[in-house]
């Protein structure tokens, strides 16, 4: 199928973009990478009369790491974010999750901010924004505001954005000293949406395992990896909740030595299965998705327990 007739606008500035959004608030749509929107248009699930192409807009392609924040502009592709060494150092969870986003060709064109704005519960990056405690900066002719992931996501494919608002940036916090993070999911085929996916951030009491964005403060040799105990754990999910809901699991893990993580895996998996609310479809039943989520969470927790530093589960030798 082909999209309904529409008019394409190509603004050059953010101000011009906001003017177009204000003028076409009821029948306009922003497009950047287009990897989610174009299929929707082709299937005529959406039929905007005006498409505002922001790919030529100055000032939306920034990718910076300052202090303890990774700032991702609206035009930064998944692939660029995935392969940025500074991002990998500051928060390896982003790159690990991005490697599960569709195929490389789609990651070359698709943008992380676009995925967040699309608010698909099957998408990895809306959940990662919520799990890391990130937020987005939004602008319109009426002013600017900041929205946390909780404030942004109100339902499947639904956000709290007003029709005249543009997300200019997404901000992901860096991992803190002593934290370890990882992501995993299972899909029927490589590149498909995951049947279920899990992201975990584990906090420990080893402050020497530093995940600092400051290159002058590398992990302390000889003490990194000697983590005594888990102090906190939180989890986010793909394809098994309507919005990027996060569960805090501190009560099940606090005080557990990392070399005794086997003793808490069942409790963590059980709490997660009680928390999520998957739906069945032609690909998997709700019960299977629930079971799968618990299995993935348990395996991921074990992987994080074997991790020697805050470099992310992908840094493990030997995988699962």
State the total count of DSSP E strands: 14
Radius of gyration: 20 Å
- The span between the termini is 42 Å
**Uncertain residue ranges:** 209-222, 311-320
Bulk shape: globular
Largest sheet: 5 strands, antiparallel
With helices defined by DSSP (H or I, 4 residues minimum), what is the helix count?
12
Sequence of secondary-structure elements: EHEHEEEHHHHHHEEHEEEEEEEHHH
Strand content: 15-25%
Structural class: alpha+beta
- What is the average per-residue confidence, as pLDDT, rounded to a whole number? 89
- Helical proportion, percent range: 25-40%
Spatial sequence of strands, sheet with the most strands:
4-5-10-6-7
3D architecture notes:
The structure is a single chain. 30% of the residues lie in helices and 24% in strands. The chain has 320 residues and is an alpha+beta fold. The strands form four sheets. A five-stranded antiparallel beta sheet has the order 4-5-10-6-7. Helix 7 packs across helix 8 and helix 11 (265-275) runs antiparallel to helix 12.
